[in-house]
C-alpha cells in the first residue's frame, strides 16, 4: 500500500496554514497526480496540456519538495526540543549529483511518482534527465561529503553541511581534437527548484583593514565587506528518518551598484564591488598559479568558513546563551585543509566578540573542532604567503601568531629539538614565509583523522610526524565509505532486485548484510542472474556512448574502467602505456587467444595542470589510432568519456567488469570509486594503496588483483636511488610502448608532442610507472585468464559484492559519531 501526502487544511476550530498529511491509498496515483497538477498550474504557471517536459520536471520536484518540508521542519524541531548536539560539516565541495531520484527513493515515493507522471504520458527516467548535475565539486572529496550528508540523515544525526553555492563551480569539460577545453558549467541557468534562500541568515564577511585595541579588547575594522546569504537544500535520509540541511553561501556586495559612477558613464566601475563579490562564488578552485588566483582562493575559503562559523555561533547563542558550552552542542568537522581558517575565526569570535580569555577560548575551540586529512601530497597541504594572509586577514594573523607561540612553547617544554619545532610551527620559515593551514587545523582540533588505515599510519610517519610526536593520541582512522542507497539501490536497480530476491532487502539500510551472499557465491543460478544484469548495464552504457560519442562497443568484451580525477599519481599514464603495449602485442601475435577489451577513461584535469591535460590528449590520440585499426578488430577499443560527473558515474560503474585503482602506493589517501565498483560486482586491479588494502582484506586475496611496489618499497627506492632508465631499457614491451608514444606514432600531426612527457619517465619517474609496469602487465594477463572462466569470474564478482558492505558511509559516520563527535 502506497503513501501519499495530500493537503489537509485545519477546521475552523484549528487555525493555521494548510499542512500536508499522509494518505494511504491502494495503488491509485490520483491524489498525488492531482497535487502535481496543482503545483504545475500554481507554481510553474502551466496548464497540463501545454506543459513541456521541463515544466513537468519542475512540478515533480516542487511536489516532492512539499512532502519533504514537513519532515524537514519536524527534524529541526525535534533537535531543538531534545537539546541534541549538531554536527557541522564544512567542505569546499559537495558533489551531490542529481537529487530527484535520490529523494524519491529515500522518501519511498518512486512508484507513486512514476504512476503520476505516467498518467500524463511521461516517463520518470526521462524527466530525471532534465536535472543538471550540481557543479559543487570535483572528485572524491566532494562526493564523500555528499555520501556523508545522506548517511547523517539516515542515521538520524542532526547536521548541517556548509559550503559555497557556486554559480558555475567545476568547469564543464569538452574534448576538442582530443584536448580538454574548460567551459562554464551553467547548472543554475534555469534556477534550482530544490533550494530555499534564507535572507534572515546573512552575515557580513570582511577582508583587509586594520586592528585597533581598546584596553584588552581588539577590534577588526575591515576595509572591504561582502554579505553572505544562506541558501538551503534539504537532504533526505533513508525512509525519511531525518531531513538535514545543506547550507550553501551566496555573496552580494553591500553596495551592488554605484549609481553616480554608472550615470557618469563608468558602467564597469559602478559594478566593480558586485563583480568582486560575485567572483567569490563563481568558480570552484580557480587556478592559483598567479597571485590573483591565490588571493581569490583564500578569499573563497575565508568567505564560506567565516559565514559558517558565525552561523554556528549565532545559533548556539540564540538557544544556549553561553559560548562556553559550544562543545556540548556543536561539533565542527573540517573536510580537508580548505576550511582550516575556522580555527582562527572561531577564536576571533570568542575573544573579540564574546570576550573570553584566550586560554579559555582555545580550550573551547579545540573541543569543538575536528579535522579530516585527505592527502599526503605536500603541495595539497595548503599554505599561504604570509604577506597575503596578513593583508587579507590581519586579525586572524595575530591570532595565529598567538596560537603558534603557545604551541611552540609547549613543544619546547616537551623536549622537541629545533628541527621538530620548525616542522610543528604554523609558519613555514624555510623560504618565503607561509602560513601552514594543515598545521593550524591539526593543533586547533581535538581529533585528526585519516581516511584509510594505511593513509592514517603514513600521516603519523610523514606529513604530521612531528605533530604526532607532540600529540600522540590525536590522530585516528576513519576509513571512507559510500552510501549503498545511491551507489547500489539507485544506480543499479537490476542488481539490487537480484540481491533482494536472494537475501532480502535489509542490506539497503545495513550494507554489511550483503555478507549473506557469500553462502550463494557459487550458486550457478545466482551467478547467471548477476551476469545478466551486468550485461544489460553494459548494453545500456554502450547505447549511451554510441548516442553521445558515435562509438560502437561490444557488450561482451571486458569493460576495463578508470574514471577519476586526472593526476599523475593516479597513473592514468601507466594504464595508457600498458594499453599501447597490448595494442602492439595484439598486432604482433594475432594467433593468440586475446580477450576483447574496452578501455574506458574519464576525468577532468585541473585547468593549469599541463601534464594531466597532456595525458587526456594522449588517451584520445591512442583511441583515434586503435579504434580505426582493423588489425585489432573487436579485440581492443579505447574510449575517453568527456565531462565525467556523478550522473555518468552512475551509468559507468554498474557496467564495469574491471576497476582500475592503480595509484602509486602511499599516495592515495583512500579512494571511494574502488568501493563503488566492488559494490557493483567489478573486480579490482590495484596497488596496495589507500582503501585497496582494506578491500583486499575484506574480499580475500583470490578476489582482487594486486600488483606493484608497496608504499614502503616506493619510499625505499626514492631514498636509495632509483634508475628508471635501466628498467625501461631492460623491458622490451615497455621500451617499445614508450618509443611509440614519444616518436609520434599516435601524434603524427606533432611528433614531439609527448617527447617531454615520456622523457620524464627516463629521468626521474617520481610516480614509479616504469617500476610497476611489468607487474601491472602481468596482472592484466592474469585478469584475461580469469575472464576466460565465466563461472569463476561470476563467483569473484559475487564475493566482491558480499564483502564490501563494511565500506558503507553509514559505518563511517557511525564511527565519527561515536569516537569524534560524541553524538548518538
UniProtKB/TrEMBL annotation:
SUPFAM superfamilies: UDP-Glycosyltransferase/glycogen phosphorylase
Entry-linked Pfam families: Phosphorylase (PF00343)
Reactions it catalyzes: [(1->4)-alpha-D-glucosyl](n) + phosphate = [(1->4)-alpha-D-glucosyl](n-1) + alpha-D-glucose 1-phosphate
Entry EC number(s): 2.4.1.1
Cofactor(s) it depends on: pyridoxal 5'-phosphate
UniProt keyword list: Carbohydrate metabolism, Glycosyltransferase, Pyridoxal phosphate, Transferase
Record keyword Manganese present: no
Keyword presence, Glycoprotein: no
InterPro entries membership: Glycg_phsphrylas, Glyco_trans_35, Pyridoxal_P_attach_site
Entry's family note: Belongs to the glycogen phosphorylase family.
Function according to Swiss-Prot or TrEMBL: Allosteric enzyme that catalyzes the rate-limiting step in glycogen catabolism, the phosphorolytic cleavage of glycogen to produce glucose-1-phosphate, and plays a central role in maintaining cellular and organismal glucose homeostasis.
NCBIfam families: P_ylase (TIGR02093)
Descriptive protein name: Alpha-1,4 glucan phosphorylase
Source species: Novosphingobium decolorationis
Amino acid at each position: 500500500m502506497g503513501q501519499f501526502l495530500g493537503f489537509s487544511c485545519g477546521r475552523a476550530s484549528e487555525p493555521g496554514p494548510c499542512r500536508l498529511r499522509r494518505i494511504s491509498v491502494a495503488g491509485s496515483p490520483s491524489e498525488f497526480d492531482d497535487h502535481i497538477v496543482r503545483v504545475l498550474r500554481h507554481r510553474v504557471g502551466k496548464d497540463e496540456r501545454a506543459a513541456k517536459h521541463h515544466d513537468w520536471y519542475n512540478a515533480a520536484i516542487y511536489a516532492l519538495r512539499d512532502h519533504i518540508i514537513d519532515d524537514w521542519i519536524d527534524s529541526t524541531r525535534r533537535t531543538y526540543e531534545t537539546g541534541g548536539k549538531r554536527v557541522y560539516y564544512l567542505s569546499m565541495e559537495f558533489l551531490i549529483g542529481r537529487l530527484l531520484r535520490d529523494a524519491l527513493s529515500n522518501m519511498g515515493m518512486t512508484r507513486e511518482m512514476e504512476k503520476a507522471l505516467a498518467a500524463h504520458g511521461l516517463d520518470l527516467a526521462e524527466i530525471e534527465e532534465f536535472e543538471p548535475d550540481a557543479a559543487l565539486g570535483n572528485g572524491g572529496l566532494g562526493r564523500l561529503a555528499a555520501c556523508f550528508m545522506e548517511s547523517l540523515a539516515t542515521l538520524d544525526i542532526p547536521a548541517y553541511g556548509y559550503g559555497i553555492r557556486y554559480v558555475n563551480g567545476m568547469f564543464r569539460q569538452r574534448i576538442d581534437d582530443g584536448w580538454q577545453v574548460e567551459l562554464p558549467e551553467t547548472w543554475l541557468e534555469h534556477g534550482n527548484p530544490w533550494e530555499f534562500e534564507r535572507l534572515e541568515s546573512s552575515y557580513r564577511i570582511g577582508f583587509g583593514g586594520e586592528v585597533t585595541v581598546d584596553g584588552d579588547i581588539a577590534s577588526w575594522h575591515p576595509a572591504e565587506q561582502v554579505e553572505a546569504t544562506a541558501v538551503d537544500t534539504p537532504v533526505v535520509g533513508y525512509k525519511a528518518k531525518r531531513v538535514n540541511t545543506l547550507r550553501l553561501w551566496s555573496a552580494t556586495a553591500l553596495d551592488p551598484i554605484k549609481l553616480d559612477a554608472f550615470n557618469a558613464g563608468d558602467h564597469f566601475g559602478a559594478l566593480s564591488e558586485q563583480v568582486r563579490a560575485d567572483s567569490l562564488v563563481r568558480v570552484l578552485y580557480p587556478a592559483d598559479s598567479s597571485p590573483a588566483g591565490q588571493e581569490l582562493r583564500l578569499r573563497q575559503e575565508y568567505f564560506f568558513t567565516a559565514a559558517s562559523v558565525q552561523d554556528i555561533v549565532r545559533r548556539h547563542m540564540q538557544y544556549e546563551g553561553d559560548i562556553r558550552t559550544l562543545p556540548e552542542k556543536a561539533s565542527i568537522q573540517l573536510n580537508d585543509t580548505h576550511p582550516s581558517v575556522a580555527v582562527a575565526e572561531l577564536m576571533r569570535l570568542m575573544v573579540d566578540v564574546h570576550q573570553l580569555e584566550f586560554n579559555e577560548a582555545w580550550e573551547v575551540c579545540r573541543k569543538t573542532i575536528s579535522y579530516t586529512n585527505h592527502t599526503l601530497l605536500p603541495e595539497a597541504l595548503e599554505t599561504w604567503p604570509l604577506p597575503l594572509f596578513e593583508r587579507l586577514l590581519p586579525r586572524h594573523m595575530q591570532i595565529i601568531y598567538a596560537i603558534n607561540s603557545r604551541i611552540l612553547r609547549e613543544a619546547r617544554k616537551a623536549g622537541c629539538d629545533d628541527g621538530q619545532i620548525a616542522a610543528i610551527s604554523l609558519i613555514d620559515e624555510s623560504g618565503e614565509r607561509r602560513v601552514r593551514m594543515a598545521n593550524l587545523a591539526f593543533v586547533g582540533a581535538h581529533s585528526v583523522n585519516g581516511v584509510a588505515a594505511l593513509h592514517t599510519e603514513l600521516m603519523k610517519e610523514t606529513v604530521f610526524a612531528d605533530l604526532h610526536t607532540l600529540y600522540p593520541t590525536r590522530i585516528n582512522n576513519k576509513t571512507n565509505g559510500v552510501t549503498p542507497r545511491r551507489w547500489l539501490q539507485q544506480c543499479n536497480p537490476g542488481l539490487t532486485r537480484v540481491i533482494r530476491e536472494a537475501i532480502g532487502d535489509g542490506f539497503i539500510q545495513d550494507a554489511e548484510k550483503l555478507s549473506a551472499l557469500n553462502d550463494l557465491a557459487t550458486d550457478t543460478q545466482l551467478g547467471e542472474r548477476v551476469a545478466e544484469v551486468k550485461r544489460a548495464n553494459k548494453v545500456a552504457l554502450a547505447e549511451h556512448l554510441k548516442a553521445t560519442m558515435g562509438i560502437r562497443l561490444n557488450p561482451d568484451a571486458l569493460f576495463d574502467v578508470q574514471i577519476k580525477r586526472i593526476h599523475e599519481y593516479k597513473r592514468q599514464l601507466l594504464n595508457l602505456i600498458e594499453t599501447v603495449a597490448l595494442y602492439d602485442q595484439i598486432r604482433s601475435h594475432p594467433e593468440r587467444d586475446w580477450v576483447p577489451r574496452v578501455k574506458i577513461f574519464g576525468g577532468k584535469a585541473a585547468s593549469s595542470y599541463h601534464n594531466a591535460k597532456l595525458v587526456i590528449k594522449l588517451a584520445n590520440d591512442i583511441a583515434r589510432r586503435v579504434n580505426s585499426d582493423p588489425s585489432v578488430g573487436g579485440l581492443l577499443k579505447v574510449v575517453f568519456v568527456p565531462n565525467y560527473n556523478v550522473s555518468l558515474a552512475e551509468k559507468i560503474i554498474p557496467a564495469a567488469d574491471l576497476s582500475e585503482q592503480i595509484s602509486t602506493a602511499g599516495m592515495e589517501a583512500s579512494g571511494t570509486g574502488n568501493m563503488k565498483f566492488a559494490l557493483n560486482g567489478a573486480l579490482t586491479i590495484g596497488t596496495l594503496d589507500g582503501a585497496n588494502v582494506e578491500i583486499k582484506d575484506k574480499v580475500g586475496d583470490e578476489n582482487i588483483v594486486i600488483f606493484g611496489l608497496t608504499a614502503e618499497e616506493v619510499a625505499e627506492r626514492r631514498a636509495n636511488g632509483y634508475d628508471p632508465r635501466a628498467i625501461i631499457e631492460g623491458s622490451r614491451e615497455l621500451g617499445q610502448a614508450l618509443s611509440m608514444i614519444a616518436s609520434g606514432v599516435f601524434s603524427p600531426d606533432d611528433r614531439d608532442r609527448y617527447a617531454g612527457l615520456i622523457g620524464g619517465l627516463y629521468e626521474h619517474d617520481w610516480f614509479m610507472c616504469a617500476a610497476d609496469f611489468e607487474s601491472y602487465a602481468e596482472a592484466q594477463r592474469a585478469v584475461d585468464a580469469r575472464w576466460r572462466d565465466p563461472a569463476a569470474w561470476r563467483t569473484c564478482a559475487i564475493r566482491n559484492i558480499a564483502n564490501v558492505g563494511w565500506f558503507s558511509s553509514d559505518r563511517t559516520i557511525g564511527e565519527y559519531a561515536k569516537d569524534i563527535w560524541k553524538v548518538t
